[in-house]
Amino acid sequence: MKTLDAVIAESPVFAGLTQEQLEFIAGCAQNVHFEEGQIIAKRGDAADAFYLLRIGEVALDIDVPNKKSVRVDTVEAGQVLGWSWLIPPYQWNYEVTATELVRAVSFDGACIRDKCASDTELGYALLMRFSQVIVGRLQATRLRLIDIYGADTH
Amino acid sequence: MAQTLTETAGSLEAMTPVPYAVTAKRQDTYDTWTLELEPVDGAPIVPGPGQFNMLYAFGVGEVPISNAGNFETDARLVHTIRAVGAVTKALCAAEIGTVIGVRGPFGNTWPIVEAKGKDVVVVAGGIGLPPLRPAIYHVLKNRKDYGRFALLYGARTPTDLVFLDEVKSWQCNYDVDLDITVDVGDTDWKGKVGLVTKLIPPAQFDADDAQAFVVGPEIMMKFVAQELMNRDLPAESIYVSMERTMRCGVGLCGHCQIGPTLVCRDGAVYTWDEVESLMAVKEL
Prior knowledge:
heterodimer, A: alpha+beta, Jelly Rolls, 4-stranded antiparallel beta sheet, B: alpha/beta, Elongation Factor Tu (Ef-tu), domain 3, Rossmann fold, 7-stranded mixed beta sheet, 7 helices, 31% strand
């Protein structure tokens, strides 16, 4: 069983951070788990946390009036869930549901955010890393706008 | 070795449709059907994985459709067709017993022999799965001849996934790393949501000793190839199946030309390094 420090240090999203920075982040982290079907966050909730998924999968859903919710993305083990804690207005944009048993590391986003305000080096480092998460989601969203399977094939 | 009529350009055999009867028909999605065909007379043609046939809806026209049969156990021709134009709509409307014309097989095959001993990564998008089905069945039947086998399948929505029962049965094989995603789901969909490219980083294969077979719309294959190369899989180990409007099937008419190559004659299977630069040209 890996320690929390080891899990955080081995995560690509925290790669390259100094030992001191990693220790601070680990101090804001705790292990959590969610049962299948458990709602982790609702749209509009204060985004004071983000998660590094260790096991399981979560779904990001958006409500469509008078229709079923649309599932716009899933986040799997090894990936980071949540970037809204870093960007105002610090609110979740989707309903987040565990689609199976999830074990994750939860980070106190509000705590890290406050630290980033005073420690700009850490703030820059985290912003660079979470920008990659955000850009990845943006690129995937744009590709889906193209509707890549819409073209005739075979 | 699969036969091919591509090398018999201009011959009567290559240009004459052979009557085949529709013996079974299944609707896969709202606009896609799978037809099973048997010759009205004589022995069936023997296509190889990756090859295509020209299917002729009499009085309407002819279209190239990839072979989707399980050649390991079944000699019947199987073709999965999306109804998008006059000919494909006519083919999809064909009832059991309807006779259609078949020419083929044409084109080259997936390099399944060359892939022996290596890891195999199959990436299918939408109805790109059927053209890969013969190669998938070959690997499954000869599983010990290959290394790890990753099968990654993406579609627009859950209802656009074809051959889903079969895919689920493959998922029961412990030696198949099978992963599925859809672009958009609903709360009934229990699988992954996102582009098929998201399945590549966690897929289990050794990039130093693997071959990838990719079929889907060209833009999908482009992003899949990029993601495979991000895993250090060389471009020459990535095989894609190109689609163009083929008419003769034997390299005479030029309808399927992409730059210096004719897809019916030189393809439809290419390595990514052969077509990457061509796919970057807007006019092609």
